[in-house]
Design a protein that fits this description.
Length: 109
């Protein structure tokens, strides 16, 4: 995907291998497409958006986003976080998306 001349075209040309919603399988391509859609919204670069709606509310330390040859952030594999912040992501997933039991993540708007 990252080596393709156009990673988004590469992703969209892949076949669908199963019925949606039946079995969960991580798909870096889907993550890349979502990152691209967020980044194309007016004034919402993916790293700044993630910082505002997720990282700052969860008190993350510094982050670093790798970009592809096209200058787009690598949403599927480019975010570098501190280990303690990765632990927070795991805790968030284990809690079904609720942060610190009494607080949910802020709205994305």
């Amino acid at each position: 995907m990252e080596a393709a001349p156009d990673r988004f075209r590469f992703i969209l040309e892949r076949p669908i291998v199963g019925e949606p919603g039946v079995k969960w399988i991580y798909c870096g391509g889907a993550t890349a497409i979502l990152g691209r859609l967020i980044g194309k919204a007016p004034a919402k670069r993916l790293p700044a958006y993630a910082r505002r709606v997720l990282f700052d509310p969860m008190d993350f330390g510094p982050s670093d986003w790798r970009v592809g040859a096209d200058g787009e952030p690598r949403a599927a594999s480019g975010c570098r976080l501190l280990p303690r912040d990765m632990l927070k992501v795991g805790q968030l997933a284990l809690a079904g998306g609720a942060w610190q039991a009494s607080k949910s993540c802020p709205p994305t708007g």
